[in-house]
Write a structure and sequence with these properties.
Shape of chain B: globular
Largest sheet of chain A: 8 strands, mixed
Number of strands of chain A: 60
Distance between the termini of chain B: 24 Å
Mean pLDDT of chain B: 76
Shape of chain A: elongated
Largest interface: A-B, 37 and 34 residues
Helix content of chain A: 25-40%
Number of helices of chain A: 33
Low-confidence stretches of chain A: 1-5, 256-316, 318-341, 392-414, 792-799, 803-814, 867-876, 972-990, 1012-1017, 1096-1107, 1175-1181, 1214-1252, ...
Radius of gyration of chain B: 15 Å
Distance between the termini of chain A: 137 Å
Low-confidence stretches of chain B: 1-18
Structural class of chain B: alpha+beta
Mean pLDDT of chain A: 70
Strand content of chain A: 25-35%
Protein name (chain A): Trafficking protein particle complex 8
Oligomer: heterodimer
Pfam families (chain A): Ig_TPPC8_1st, Ig_TPPC8_2nd, Ig_TPPC8_3rd, Ig_TPPC8_C, TRAPPC-Trs85
Order of helices and strands of chain B: HEEHEEEHH
Radius of gyration of chain A: 58 Å
């Protein structure tokens, strides 16, 4: 804001002051030169009059002249014709003035708050004020106005002159010559008879005072006391005055004078825009030339103000830099000459100052004002006399010749584009002259009326330039009139500006007009109008002016009652652009920074980028690389909408600037903004990377960085590990148990320092993302870490980092070896990111020492992508900067305490803060011949290999699995009792087989086994390796039986291997290894078993009386749905396993023993089962299972041996009530030809309780056909028919009655028939039974029932012992003949132990019909 | 009122290719929700123009608010004319601003057409806001809206 210290009125007033010329003799100049001042300069500080003057106007009214200032200038004769524009020297001076006037650091700023905007603005714009003052002072004098024409001339002669009076005469003649000879046009004179004022300058330190006085007396005689003066100065002796401090009133005036003398002011800023002096002096051209000069200097910055230049290569910046430094040098050279400016007026005392002041006052009041007064009066008289005649004459001729016609007399006069030109002494100008005089002596009222009249005249004459001048001054004087009788005529100004600018093409005058008007408008609060005015004045011819005016306009917008923030910002940008064009870089930067406040963070990214880019470049050229880097960084980080080429340019510029910044200070590696690191996505993996396969061996999958983290899966693993740890610690999970985490990511719990093992690699996966549309090339990418010795979490210990590695010059750094000793850091040589790509880099670190290792960040070289097709491609690839980026991983948000909830707090995340522990064992697990697809129940043998790859022995090997029924390691305890059959040996079968004679239907070899010796309490299994310890480097192989899961589909099976170090004092108590397999199970055989009481009389079973024969039916169905061909299954053997029952005999009626099942075939096998010794089951607390094998082929498979038995017990454990299950085992492929597809396969079937029959049936089958690859198809599972093993089977009922009964109803109306009800308890428990004989109305049997009734007790409550049979005698009563259904008794039963009497209705027996005949 | 001068500022400099038509949607908080102009070269200039016009929009809103109370027409009319282009404004009741900038040489567009363009834009904008998956305040990325705008640009340009 152009905030004038003086009021606006004063400013305007001071813009137009009476001008006084000075003509000095050489001697006089020498006197003043002692003070390093010219005579004019000497006077200048005292040119403002402190006392009031008086003047009489033509009407003899006294007019007070207050606060008058006069302008003093030495006569400079300029042969060149008066130009309408400023001379180049003046332009440069203006440039200079603005350049040197920069806002101070910490200059007062106001903060303006407008809605969402809060801006900090400069309060003052001293550069503008200084420019304005200088501009108004350097106005070229023009013919159409007289304001800055010289009114008087001071003739100055020194008293030391031999004959001063002669000298005065000489000077007087000189003045006369200059004014009237016509040689010079430039110093213009107000009135032909200029006031001459004779000044005798006396040097008190030199000449004799008496002589001066004498001369002065002489002068008084000659010129009158009003016309001369004796000025005595230099009263001070140098020696005396050292200690005296005298204010230096010249300093503020002289500053500019020095500039005029082309001494470059010592500018702290090396500015590229100070044109070299020689070039300037020789340059006698005008504005255009100087402008082109600027263009050269300002490099490529001149282009569209609102366009980002994509084609700019850093080369431009480079050249700019060199120019800068050169200029800096030249500036330095100039510097010494401009020293010692403070010693002005060294010979002057304070009284001398007073002398000068008095002199001015005397001159003004005695000489100048009366002179003016006289002239006003003269002019007034002339005008009054002329008025009556010429005015009327003029108007009369106009009327006659028609309006708009040029008056006759004007034809001969020169014409220009802006209309008529009067000769200097033309009578038309007299009124203007008078107006100007009045104006100068502050008689604004008279001035206004004169201007107003003049304006009319000029306009009617079409003398546009003159009219504009009159308009301008009329407006100004209207404004200055005290009490403001009329409003300020802004439209006068507008017209004046328009005429000046458009018609006369005189920008200087237009600018003056605009400056005045804007200031006046602002003082009246009309900011909007002022802004418009100022903006109108921006033009192509002067960048500096445009810039300053635009800036002022911007301030106008912000000062409006409703501040227009955005307009302010926009105009600031325009101003900044013009400043930069004018070479005023600092001002340009300041403007852009101010505008930035409005655009920042408001989503106007395109504009923001543009500003940032400009700020960056300007800062750079002004040697503020830090700011430049910040600005460029902002562009790159900003989610930019720019096109790719643009971004490429940004990146190049950034890299270049960055590089130059880095060259300046090489101490620390700076942070790079690109590419973005997604810190929270950082993953850390501990341990070596797993080999996936080694030959035929298939390695355990374990954990790898390729896997995504899954909450559920990790919960499963955690559960398994918990089980393992519990098993290792005698069933108790230690309180400090924490699941092992091999791979840390944002989902894992990272509160504790992760433990890493020495000499085992640490892999950090860093996610880089490139937000730009251009590719980035990273190279020499490596991790940055800090290492401290053990227990080094606190400070004050020797921390080693690998930071210093960054410097390009690899000196013999002793730290380098230490670093290598601590940890080996892998370096990724090349890592490129495509546009907008997100890519991960895996960085490895191999620690060699135990201690505390903190991974801080990454360090890399950054370069732009090499895919640029432009010619600068080669150039860009040169720019490689090295920098770092730190990880900044935030922990999860805290949400425990109240403070946590109210603030946003984050917990620590220590996933990169590692503790390196001593060596630990490391195990690898491999699988051999591991299948991927199995039939349901198929048994296959695979091998597993454990190898210890570390230098530490491991022990306590265990495994836990989500599907413990899937596999078994077998046990070496069960050794075959009978010699192996030859086929089995030949087949290399996994089964123990015994050759059996082809004796049909016979069950052989019962084996009693207790369940406990093979069943485990949980999913955890010890792995039976020899000695339990795996020594370093050792490996061992174990067989592994697998059994296809009973439900078809793809199953995910997880194994977790557990091991611990054989040395107990480890920080890591144990380690685990994960393995996941996917098994595809397809359907094979469906087995259903049912049992029923044998109907064969008891005496048939000779073997033992106690056991009740029970028939067991096994329904087998081939439900395989393989597409690849029909599968046949061969039932080889059926075995039973039960603590109470055993299969006894095969009683299939058809006797086809070799049971083959084709696709979708069913078979029914029938067996007789007998009970084992009951006391065996009841006495022993440990349940013992009896295995009975019934071979259908010619060899018996020992079902009680390893795979079969193990799986049986596992199945028992996992599912309490067994259904059908099957297992098959496949032979090794080489045997196929020998056995002709007769592979040993078997099905184990487990029976279910049927009628309280606790018998498990194992069906062993083999696949008869070639195995084809199973294709898994998801189909609805086959309906499983499960015989209800409910309480309804507790009691069997049976009604015994005669089939027919004949009764003579005629004799006896009631017919009583005895019926016996047999109840038999099938279970092994005591059963309470209720027999209810009452009829219940049930739908269709209503009539039948109503016809008969039970006689006697209608309800019985009984208790039945285990296996007890009881008979109840009932009587039925019939009323008439017919057929009756007797099975109406309802039987409820429940086991006695069951407390609740939830009696269940027993199944209703079939209809028991009785025929009653009537005889 | 000042476009004139901007033109002056920009005149004679390279790359002053003007857009023929541009449409912008500005959020209540004065950040752009959607900005599109025909000529992409002068996109930056278009952004600046739209941003600057917000001052006038605010001025108009506040001026109307005082005199007429809630009765405010959504269409603000010509914000300011310049030699190069005309800027029209429209403010929804939720203070979302629509700005249409058309080439001054395009004389075929009358006030009524501009008005209907705004209405169409407003309807389409409402549709976007009704999308349950659109988060109010996010930049508009609706294809339908894009289509409407493109249609207008073809029609006017």
């Amino acid at each position: 804001m152009a905030h004038s210290v003086r009021s606006v009125q004063e400013f305007v007033q001071d813009s137009f002051v009476p001008m006084v010329a000075v003509l000095c003799s050489e001697e006089a100049e020498r006197v003043t030169a002692k003070n390093k001042l010219s005579f004019c300069e000497l006077l200048r500080p005292f040119c403002r009059l402190t006392s009031e003057g008086h003047i009489r106007d033509p009407n003899n009214q006294v007019q007070v002249v207050k606060n008058l200032r006069i302008g003093v200038n030495s006569i400079e004769t300029d042969p060149s014709t008066a130009s309408m524009a400023l001379r180049p020297g003046q332009l440069r001076l203006l440039d200079e003035v603005v350049l040197t006037c920069q806002p101070q650091e910490g200059a007062p700023t106001t903060s303006i708050k407008n809605g969402e905007y809060e801006l900090n603005l400069n309060v003052n714009t001293p550069w503008f004020e200084v420019y304005r003052r200088k501009f108004l002072q350097s106005m070229p004098s023009s013919d159409h106005e007289f304001l800055n024409h010289y009114l008087a001339c001071l003739l100055v002669v020194s008293s030391t002159e031999a004959v001063p009076v002669e000298q005065f005469l000489k000077l007087s003649q000189e003045q006369h010559r200059i004014q009237h000879s016509g040689e010079y046009t430039n110093p213009k004179w107000f009135i032909p008879n200029t006031l001459k004022y004779y000044v005798l300058l006396h040097d008190l330190s030199q000449g004799e005072e008496q002589r001066a006085d004498a001369v002065y007396e002489d002068m008084k005689q000659r010129y009158g006391p009003q016309g001369c003066y004796l000025l005595k100065i230099n009263s001070r002796t140098i020696s005396a005055g050292v200690d005296e401090q005298i204010p230096d009133p010249w300093s503020q005036y002289l500053h500019k004078n020095n500039c005029q003398q082309q001494d470059l002011v010592d500018d702290p800023v090396p500015s590229a825009d100070d044109p070299p002096a020689d070039e300037e002096t020789t340059n006698a051209s005008d504005v255009v030339d100087s402008k082109t000069e600027h263009d050269v200097m300002s490099g490529n910055l001149e282009n569209h103000p609102l366009q980002l230049d994509a084609s700019i290569s850093p080369g431009n910046l480079e050249t700019l830099m060199t120019v800068n430094t050169e200029l800096k040098k030249s500036n330095r050279e100039v510097d010494p000459q401009t020293g010692g400016a403070g010693s002005h007026g060294a010979w002057l005392t304070l009284s001398d100052h007073d002398h000068i002041r008095q002199f001015i006052q005397e001159f003004t009041f005695r000489g100048l004002l009366p002179h003016i007064e006289k002239n006003i009066r003269q002019l007034n008289d002339q005008l009054v006399s002329r008025k009556g005649l010429s005015r009327s004459l003029l108007t009369a001729t106009k009327k006659w010749f028609g309006g708009g016609k040029v008056p006759e007399k004007a034809v001969a006069e020169p014409k220009s584009s802006c209309g008529l030109l009067y000769p200097p002494e033309a009578p038309e100008l007299q009124i203007r002259k008078m107006a100007d005089l009045c104006f100068l002596v502050q008689h604004y009222e008279l001035a206004y009326s004169c201007y107003h009249t003049a304006k009319k005249d000029f306009l009617s004459d079409q003398a546009m330039l003159y009219a504009a001048g009159a308009l301008e001054m009329a407006a100004v004087s209207a404004f200055l009139q005290a009490g403001a009788p009329r409003p300020y005529p802004a439209h006068y100004m507008d017209t004046a500006i328009q005429i000046y600018r458009d018609l006369c093409k005189n920008m200087v005058l237009a600018e003056r007009c605009a400056l005045l008007s804007a200031e006046i408008l602002k003082s009246q609060g009309k900011y909007s109008e002022a802004a418009t005015l100022l903006i109108k004045m921006t033009s192509e011819d002067s960048d500096l002016r445009s810039a300053l005016l635009l800036e002022q306009a911007a301030y106008c917008f912000i000062n409006m009652r409703n501040p227009m923030v955005r307009k302010f910002a926009f105009h600031m940008i325009l101003a900044g652009h013009r400043f930069s064009k004018a070479g005023q870089r600092r001002h340009a930067l300041r403007c852009y920074c101010q505008a930035m406040q409005v655009y920042k963070d408001r989503g106007w990214s395109l504009a923001e980028d543009h500003i940032n880019f400009t700020i960056g470049r300007q800062s750079f050229t002004l040697c503020q690389p830090e700011n430049a880097v910040t600005a460029f960084r902002q562009i790159l980080i900003n989610d930019s909408r720019q096109i790719a080429a643009q971004q490429g340019a940004f990146l190049r510029e950034y890299l270049y600037v960055y590089k130059s910044l880095k060259n300046a200070n090489e101490v620390s590696l700076p942070q790079l903004p690109l590419p973005c690191i997604q810190s929270s996505a950082t993953r850390v993996y501990f341990g070596p990377e797993r080999r996936l396969a080694e030959g035929e061996k298939q390695a355990a999958t374990h954990v790898s960085l390729d896997q995504e983290y899954d909450q559920d899966v990790s919960a499963i693993w955690c559960h398994l590990e918990e089980q393992l740890v519990a098993a290792a610690n005698r069933g108790i999970v230690p309180a400090n148990f924490r699941p092992t985490q091999c791979c840390l990511n944002k989902h894992t719990d990272n509160l504790r320092h992760p433990l890493a093992v020495v000499e085992e690699p640490i892999i950090v996966e860093v996610t880089f993302s490139n937000p730009l549309k251009v590719s980035l090339a990273l190279s020499k990418l490596s991790l940055l870490w800090r290492f401290g010795e053990e227990e080094a979490s606190s400070e004050g210990l020797t921390e080693v980092t690998n930071k210093s590695e960054e410097t390009a010059t690899h000196e013999e750094n002793p730290a380098q070896e230490i670093k290598e000793e601590i940890a080996t850091t892998e370096i990724i040589q090349e890592f490129s990111l495509a546009p907008e790509e997100t890519k991960v880099a895996r960085l490895r670190l191999l620690p060699h020492r135990t201690g505390h290792l903190n991974i801080v960040g990454v360090v890399y070289n950054l370069a732009g992508g090499s895919t640029e097709e432009t010619s600068e491609g080669v150039h860009t690839s040169d720019i490689i900067v090295r920098g770092r980026q730190d990880f900044n991983i935030q922990g999860p948000r805290l949400n425990v305490t109240k403070e946590d909830k109210m603030l946003v707090r984050h917990g620590p995340d220590r996933r990169l803060d590692l503790l390196i522990t001593p060596p630990m064992p490391l195990m690898e697990v491999f699988f051999l011949q591991f299948p991927t697809a199995l039939l349901c129940g198929e048994i296959r043998k695979a091998y597993v290999e454990f190898s210890n790859v570390s230098a530490v022995a491991l022990s306590g090997l265990r495994v836990a699995s989500t599907h413990p029924e899937f596999f078994t390691f077998g046990s070496e305890a069960t050794t075959p009792m009978t010699p192996l059959s030859p086929t089995a040996a030949e087949n290399n079968s996994s089964y123990q087989t015994v050759a059996t004679p082809p004796q049909q239907g016979c069950v052989t070899s019962d084996v009693l086994l207790s369940a406990e010796d093979s069943a485990h309490p949980s999913a955890v299994m010890d792995i039976p390796i020899k000695g339990g310890i795996l020594k370093p480097g050792e490996s061992t192989q174990l067989p592994l039986w697998l059994r296809g899961l009973d439900t078809d589909g793809v199953h995910e099976i997880n194994f977790l291997f557990y091991y611990e170090s054989s040395e107990k004092s480890c920080r890591i108590s144990h380690r685990v290894l994960r393995h996941t397999v996917f098994i595809c199970a397809s359907r094979s055989l469906s087995v259903q078993a049912s049992a029923c009481r044998s109907s064969i009389p008891r005496h048939d079973s000779e073997e033992d009386e106690d056991s009740r024969g029970t028939l067991v039916f096994v329904d087998l169905e081939n439900i395989n749905t393989s597409e690849g061909g029909v599968r046949e299954f061969n039932i080889v053997q059926v075995s039973s396993s039960s603590p109470q029952w055993r299969l006894h005999k095969y009683i299939n009626p058809k006797n086809d023993i070799d049971c083959k099942l084709g696709s979708r075939e069913r078979a029914k096998l029938c067996f007789r089962a007998t009970q084992c010794k009951p006391q065996q089951a009841s006495l022993d607390s440990i349940q013992k299972y009896t295995f009975a094998d019934l071979s259908l082929g010619n060899e018996r498979i020992v079902s009680s041996s390893t795979p079969c038995r193990d799986f049986f017990f596992r199945c028992c454990r996992t599912s309490a009530s067994q259904q059908d299950a099957a297992a098959s085992s496949k032979l090794s492929s080489k045997d196929k030809c020998v056995v002709s597809g007769n592979r040993a396969s078997d099905i184990i079937d487990i029976a279910k309780k049927c009628n309280e029959l606790d018998l498990n049936i194992i069906v062993i089958w083999k696949e008869a056909q070639e195995m084809v690859l199973l294709k898994f198809k998801s189909e609805p599972p086959p309906p499983v028919i499960q015989p209800p093993a409910e309480l309804s089977h507790l009691i069997k009922t049976n009604l015994h009655h005669p089939e027919t009964f004949t009764h003579h109803f005629a004799q006896h109306s009631l017919c009583l028939v005895p019926v016996s009800l047999t109840l038999s308890n099938c279970s092994m428990a005591h059963v309470d039974a209720i027999i209810d004989l009452r009829h219940y109305s049930s739908s269709e049997t209503q009539e039948v029932h109503s016809s008969f009734a039970w006689v006697g007790q209608s309800q019985y409550k009984l208790q039945l012992k285990p296996q007890e049979v009881m008979c109840l005698s009932l009587q039925a009563c019939f009323l008439q003949a017919g057929v009756y259904n007797l099975s109406t008794p309802r039987v409820f039963a429940k086991p006695t132990e069951h407390g609740a009497m939830s009696e269940t209705s027993q199944q209703t027996a079939g209809p028991a019909l009785i025929i009653i005949n009537s005889s | 009122m000042f476009g004139d001068s901007i033109r002056k500022c920009l005149a004679g400099l390279q790359g002053t290719q003007t857009w023929r038509v541009g449409i912008a949607v500005i959020a209540k908080e004065n950040y752009p929700l959607y900005i599109r102009s025909v000529a992409s070269q002068s996109e930056l200039k278009f952004h600046y123009t739209v941003h600057t016009s917000l001052d006038v929009v605010e001025e108009k809103i506040s001026a109307v608010g005082k005199s007429l109370g809630d009765q405010r027409e959504l269409y603000l009319g010509l914000l300011y004319p310049t030699e190069d282009y005309k800027v029209y404004g429209y403010v929804t009741n939720s203070k979302v601003k629509f700005v249409i900038v058309v080439d001054s040489s395009n004389t075929s567009l009358r006030d009524n057409e501009i008005r209907s363009m705004f209405r169409k834009l407003h309807n389409s904008f409402t549709d976007v806001m009704c999308n349950p998956f659109h988060n109010p305040g996010d930049p508009i990325q609706s294809k339908a809206f894009d289509g409407i705008v493109s249609g207008m640009m073809v029609q006017t340009g």
